[in-house]
Structures are given as C-alpha cells and as structure tokens.
Amino acid sequence: MRPRLAHWLTLAGAVALLDQLTKQIMLSVLAGGEVIAVTGFFDLVLLYNRGAAFSFLAEHSGWQRWFFIVLAVVICGWLFKLMREHQHERALPLAFALIIGGAIGNVIDRIAIGAVVDFLYFHVGRYGWPAFNLADSAITLGVGIMLWSQLRDARQPPTGEKPS
Description:
Elements: H1 5-29, E1 35-37, E2 42-49, H2 63-85, H3 91-113, E3 116-124, E4 127-128, H4 134-155
Antiparallel strand pairs: 1-2, 2-3, 3-4
C-alpha cells in the first residue's frame, strides 16, 4: 500500500516539529555567536539569519522577513497542491513533504523571532559553509529528491500510458 496524503502531511509536520525541537535545544545551551567545537570540521554555533540562503538580503531593514514568510506560504500551498496530485507516488510527495516541513520550520522562526535560527557549521580551517539548520537540510534533501525524480522520469522511455 502506498502512502496517502495524510502520511505525507504527517511527515511534513514531523520535520517542522523536529526542526523546532533542535532549535529550542540549541537556544537553551548556546548564547548568540557562541561556538562549541564538536570535531575539527564541525561546530555548533548559534546564529540568527534575517535573510534567506547564504544570508541573502539579510542586511536590509526588515521588509525581507515578511517577503520570505509570504513566499514560503505561497510555495507551500503550491507544493501541497502538487502533493495531492502525486500522493500515491513515492519520490515526489516525499520531496514535497520535506520541503514543506522545512519551510514551515523556518517560517515559525521568522514569525516568532524575526530571523531563522542556524546552528550547524561545517568548515575546513578558516573556510566554512554558512551555518544552517535541520529545516534547511530537509529543504535541500527535498529539492534533491525532486530533481532526481524528474531526471529519472525524463530518461525512462514512454510506455504509451498516461501518467497518473
């Protein structure tokens, strides 16, 4: 039996909940800007991102907060529609659920504190990847699954049947 819409929505909710739980843990153990070295290439940090990926638009006066909230809500609505259409498949609704859950997790931060809480920091010496969180990871994984699914389907020869 293939998962239905309720299963995918439960997954999206679980992603958002786990994201918020991990952020609350980090907020309770770290002060802003504090760093805990875990390995030679990974640290826990507490940073607040007022922008989007890679702090895009973070330096602006605050309008970006509401822009990113509205954008996330619109994209989640569109992905929910696609999830309903593809609910009996596996890869696409999985991708949509991960993206929706991650987006909800970050929207909660933007509404509650005006910025997204980031705490995972990978680096090599002084050079590092921008800090991120579980929601960002879910979004990235979801986009990767979505692209993989679309590329895989594009390479399959047509069967003469209409896609469901």
